[in-house]
Write a structure and sequence with these properties.
Blueprint (H helix, E strand, L loop, with lengths): L2 H6 L3 H14 L1 H14 L4 H7 L5 H5 L14 H14 L2 E8 L7 E7 L3 E6 L7 E6 L6 H8 L2 H4 L5 E6 L3 E6 L6 E7 L6 E6 L8 E7 L4 E7 L6 E6 L5 E5 L22 E7 L2 E6 L8 E5 L5 E5 L7 E7 L2 E7 L6 E8 L5 E8 L4 E7 L2 E6 L4 E7 L5
Antiparallel strand pairs: 1-23, 2-3, 3-4, 5-6, 6-7, 7-8, 9-10, 10-11, 11-12, 13-14, 14-15, 15-16, 17-18, 18-19, 19-20, 21-22, 22-23
Helix pairs in contact: 2-3
Length: about 400
């Protein structure tokens, strides 16, 4: 019996199901079906005008996400509308990944300077570590890069530089595992980048600071301090002149079963990183914290507000915040050499997207700048760059 005879014995619903499956599996067959449908039952002209209207398409696509990418294949107008929708929603493109060139050994902090110059704190060897400057993009200003590389800061050596942050008039460098008297440095962010101010190592947090973030409106600095022997941590708040305002989020002494105090940075870190967004301070905590892993939101004076994304991260490393969202790098459950970038809506606490990418070892810092997300790998001495999907045009 021929195929046509056998198909004739099937019901309408069965034939329809076979036709739909076939069209979904073959773009060529789908296009043929669309042409036949348009010939048999063409859309009225007013309907075509609506479906291609530049004013109505944004409303039509406003509810679409990454899973509805098939809409982009309808026509050129829909493809452009879908691309713009992805950009408005700030979805990250998991297939767009690149690596920066000239990354120094063991990058531990990232900071973007004018001209597209990326400052990277390099923990090469104690006493020989430094801040290195690389081009963040192909269009980075070569003159700005050359000026940074010729500055006094580029020649400066540190005991162990960690987090970096930008203020209105300078660049902050955290000193960690410091054998010096200074735990926080401030340098001019242009010209010869001379030293402007310092913060001495605190009596209660003599091991220095791991990470820092700046509230641009008030110029307050929020730094994670580490006590030398018991390894308790706290968030230290400084004013615009780098004078201590208060200390909050003290974690207390480390439990006895956390291992050697000189072990790697993953051994015991209840406070993993800090970011500032609008008028909220966001502290990333790990499972070592008494309240577990999550994002602890504080006001600018350090008062606890609430926790979002509680117990959502496996071995969290670093955080950045931009446009109402927190970006958290954490370990990958399925791949020890990979990482996951979680995007969290700060207002609702919902995880909007989780992007898996290759990154060996300890992810030491994350920076969101423009359309790109920069993530440093301490062990692999690499900086991975991810991009937002879609386009604005």
């Amino acid at each position: 019996m021929s195929l046509s005879s056998r198909l004739a014995n099937l019901s309408y619903a069965q034939l329809l199901g076979i036709a739909v499956d076939a069209c979904e599996g073959s773009p060529e067959l789908k296009n043929k079906a669309d042409a036949l449908i348009a010939k048999v039952s063409p859309l009225p002209s007013w309907c075509v005008d609506v479906l291609l209207s530049p004013d109505l398409l944004p409303q039509l696509f406003s509810s679409l996400g990454l899973s509805e990418h098939g809409a982009a294949g309808v026509c050129t107008s829909w493809s452009h509308a879908y691309s713009r929708q992805l950009r408005r929603c700030r979805y990250i493109n998991p297939r767009s990944v690149r690596q920066l060139a000239d990354v120094p050994t063991r990058p531990s902090g990232l900071c973007m300077l004018p001209g597209g110059v990326l400052a990277i704190a390099s923990c090469n060897n104690p006493g020989k570590s430094r801040v290195k400057f690389v081009a963040a993009r192909n269009e980075s200003d070569p003159h700005a890069l050359a000026a940074c590389r010729a500055s006094s800061l580029a020649a400066r050596r540190f005991a162990w530089p960690a987090g970096l942050a930008v203020t209105n008039d300078g660049l902050l460098v955290c000193g960690y595992y410091t054998d010096q008297s200074t735990a926080l440095f401030k340098f001019a962010k242009d010209g010869s980048m001379d030293e402007l101010a310092t913060v001495p190592a605190l009596a209660d947090y003599g091991q220095g600071f791991l990470d820092c973030a700046v509230h641009q409106q008030t110029q307050r600095t929020y730094a994670i301090g580490v006590e030398a022997e018991e390894r308790n941590q706290a968030l230290v708040i400084f004013d615009a002149r780098l004078q201590i305002i208060t200390t909050v989020e003290d974690t207390g002494d480390a439990p006895e079963d956390t291992g050697d105090a000189d072990a790697d940075a993953d051994a015991y870190r209840p406070l993993r990183d800090v970011a500032v967004h609008d008028d909220q301070v966001i502290v990333l905590t790990s499972d070592d914290h008494a309240a577990g892993s999550g994002l602890r939101l504080l006001d600018l004076d350090g008062r606890y507000l609430r926790t979002i994304a509680a117990a959502q991260f496996r071995n969290p490393y670093a955080i950045a915040a931009s446009h109402g969202r927190a970006f958290v790098v954490a370990g990958d459950v399925d791949d020890d050499s990979g990482k996951v970038l979680h995007v969290i809506d700060i207002q609702s606490g919902d995880v909007l997207q989780s992007v898996h990418f290759e990154c060996e070892g300890h992810a030491s810092a994350i920076l969101v700048d423009g359309d790109e997300i920069f993530i440093s790998s301490y062990n692999a001495s690499k900086v991975v760059v991810l991009r937002y999907a879609g386009s604005e045009a």
